[in-house]
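Office hours follow-up: a student asked to see two folded examples consecutively, so here they are.
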Amino acid sequence: MKILFVENDPLTRRSYTRLLRSRDHDVVEVETLEQARAQLASGSFDLAVLDLELAEGNTTLGLAREIADRDIPVLFHTGTFRVELLNEASKIGLVIHKGPGSVERLLEELGSER
């Protein structure tokens, strides 16, 4: 499965990318909205895993809508508890909170996407 992984935290991005690659997923990791859009323009993906809130108050909601319009499933992996953002995100894709059990949940959802 080819996955676009958008996460601004380098440690989280590297850790999840390493884990997903160890499960034989082809992962393209990016840090910013601009990088994500460039990757979308140049390739095709089976799934997008997005951090809901990026640096400087940016959210990935607009990007998620663009991705969903291409019929690519969206999975948000987030630490936010901002209700309005979570409500909007849940209209677009599945939301998984970072924390205990989130890695297992992410892998479980990826298994169901195959």
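And the second, which I mentioned at the end of office hours:
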Amino acid sequence: MMSSLSANARRGTVDRMAKKQAATERKPNRYSAIIGRIFKNHYKPGKTQFAFSRDEFVEIAKSLGIVLPKNLGDTILFFSLQNCVAA
């Protein structure tokens, strides 16, 4: 027979695992959502670069229901620093 302590410990482990899985299934933050949409709109296989305008940030944020960052440059800076985007 198992002690109640080990059952509680197992329950705690299961809870932590469920929280970790839920964290990985979250929707992307607003920076990632905006950059992801820009990438999706412009990328074509074989392309190594593409141009986009700041106006697209506003349009995309509106279409996704995202509050636009005050400094649009933060979006690119955040993404490049956090996600190792080549400069």
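Two things to take away from it. The first helix runs from residue 4 to 24. Helices lie at 4-24, 30-42, 54-64, 72-83.
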